[in-house]
Design goal:
It contains four helices and five strands, in the order αββαβββαα. It is of the alpha+beta class. The chain has a five-stranded antiparallel sheet, sandwiched between helices. It is elongated.
Length: about 150
């Protein structure tokens, strides 16, 4: 299932989620229910960066809730993918987090990057291999034709 379909299913199933966005760790928008999805994803990435600076401990931030009188923003990050959603005031926090995590798990994992192959070094024309030098050195001299005896 792609991100856009996962978000459509999420907003259909969860009556508390008003809008949602999915993006990767590079900020690339993968799906959005908002027309301003890229701007929302950027704002969420900035919120995450600020929260990372304030958190205690060494582990990465996995989820975040920001509540205001007008509503809340929920963010869940798993691996390199982040999902964020807006809700009306006083949502059921545990249920919203559960729904966001479930939506993330329906997304296909990002394929691992292909390993880079190292280019084989090209042989240097100035350097002959030892076997090539030996082959040249052992080459017998060309045989000269014998002169016929004079009559």
């Amino acid at each position: 299932m792609d991100a856009q379909q996962a978000l459509a299913d999420l907003t259909e199933i969860s009556s508390q989620i008003e809008a949602a966005v999915v993006f990767d760790d590079k900020g690339k928008l993968l799906g959005s229910t908002r027309p301003d999805g890229e701007a929302f994803a950027k704002a969420v990435a900035e919120l995450l960066a600020a929260a990372e600076e304030l958190k205690t401990g060494d582990s990465a931030l996995g989820q975040l809730e920001i509540a205001t009188n007008e509503g809340s923003v929920f963010v869940v990050r798993e691996g390199k993918t982040t999902i964020a959603a807006t809700t009306p005031p006083a949502p059921t926090v545990g249920l919203v987090f559960y729904d966001l995590k479930s939506a993330l798990r329906t997304l296909p994992p990002k394929p691992p990057p292909r390993p880079r192959t190292q280019a084989k070094p090209k042989p240097d024309a100035k350097k002959k291999s030892a076997s090539a030098k030996k082959a040249t050195a052992k080459k017998p001299p060309a045989a000269r034709p014998k002169k016929p005896d004079a009559p």
